[in-house]
C-alpha cells in the first residue's frame, strides 16, 4: 500500500497524529523526516514514547528519505510521512520527484511574521510561496487538522484570513 498521508505538522508526533489520523487510517508506521531529530537519540526517544507499541517510527534526514520512501511504499501496512515545516516538505518533494502526490498541512502555528489563514495554519509570505512551489511540482496541497474536517484546497487556504 502506498503511504497513506504526507503531513506538515510543527508538533511532529503527538496525539492528533497518532490517534486522530493513526486510528482511522490504521497506520502501522511513521516516517519522521527532520535533519536534527534524525541525529538526536534523546529527541527520538521522546517521540517514541508518544507512539503505541504496534506502530514503528523511522527517523531520517531529508537526504536519506527518498530511498526510505521507496521502501516504505512497498510495505503492505499503511504509514504516514511527517515533517515539521513547509521548507522540509519542499526539500523532500525535490529529493523524491514524482513520488509525493498530495500533502496535508496540519499545523503551522502562530509566530511573529505569520498571518492566520485557518485556526491551525499561520504562514509567512515565504511559507505561502513554499506551498505554491509544492503545487507547481504537481503536488495537491490541502489543509486539514483532523480526518473528519473538510480538506481546504490551497487557493482557499491562501485566500483565507480568518485565522481564528
SSE topology:
Layout lengths: L4 E5 L5 H11 L3 E5 L7 H8 L7 E5 L1 H12 L5 E5 L2 H10 L6 E6 L7 E4 L2 E3 L1 H12 L3 E4 L8 E2 H6 L5
Parallel strand pairs: 1-4, 1-5, 2-3, 2-4, 5-8
Antiparallel strand pairs: 6-7, 8-9
Model description:
Helix content is 36%, strand content 24%. It is globular. It has six helices and nine strands, in the order βαβαβαβαβββαββα. Strands 3-2-4-1-5-8-9 form a seven-stranded mixed β-sheet. The model has no long low-confidence stretch (mean pLDDT 92). A hairpin with an 8-residue loop joins β8 and β9. The chain is of the alpha/beta class and 164 residues long. The chain has one domain: Fructose Permease, CATH 3.40.35.10. α3 crosses α4 (86-95) and α4 runs parallel beside α5. The chain has helices spanning 15-25, 41-48, 62-73, 86-95, 125-136, 154-159; strands spanning 5-9, 29-33, 56-60, 79-83, 102-107, 115-118, 121-123, 140-143, 152-153.
Amino acid at each position: 500500500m502506498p503511504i497513506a498521508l504526507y503531513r506538515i505538522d510543527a508538533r511532529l508526533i503527538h496525539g492528533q497524529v497518532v490517534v486522530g489520523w493513526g486510528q482511522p487510517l490504521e497506520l502501522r508506521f511513521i516516517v519522521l523526516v527532520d535533519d536534527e531529530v534524525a541525529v538526536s537519540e534523546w529527541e527520538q526517544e521522546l517521540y517514541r514514547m508518544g507512539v503505541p507499541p504496534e506502530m514503528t517510527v523511522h527517523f531520517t534526514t531529508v537526504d536519506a528519505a527518498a530511498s526510505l520512501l521507496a521502501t516504505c511504499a512497498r510495505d503492505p501496512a499503511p504509514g504516514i510521512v511527517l515533517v515539521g515545516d513547509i521548507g522540509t516538505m519542499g526539500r523532500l518533494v525535490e529529493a523524491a520527484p514524482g513520488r509525493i502526490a498530495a500533502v496535508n498541512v496540519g499545523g503551522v502555528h502562530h509566530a511573529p511574521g505569520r498571518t492566520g489563514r485557518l485556526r491551525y495554519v499561520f504562514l509567512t509570505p515565504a511559507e505561502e510561496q513554499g506551498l505554491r512551489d509544492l503545487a507547481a511540482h504537481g503536488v495537491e496541497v490541502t489543509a486539514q487538522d483532523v480526518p473528519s474536517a473538510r480538506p481546504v484546497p490551497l487557493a482557499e487556504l491562501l485566500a483565507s484570513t480568518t485565522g481564528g
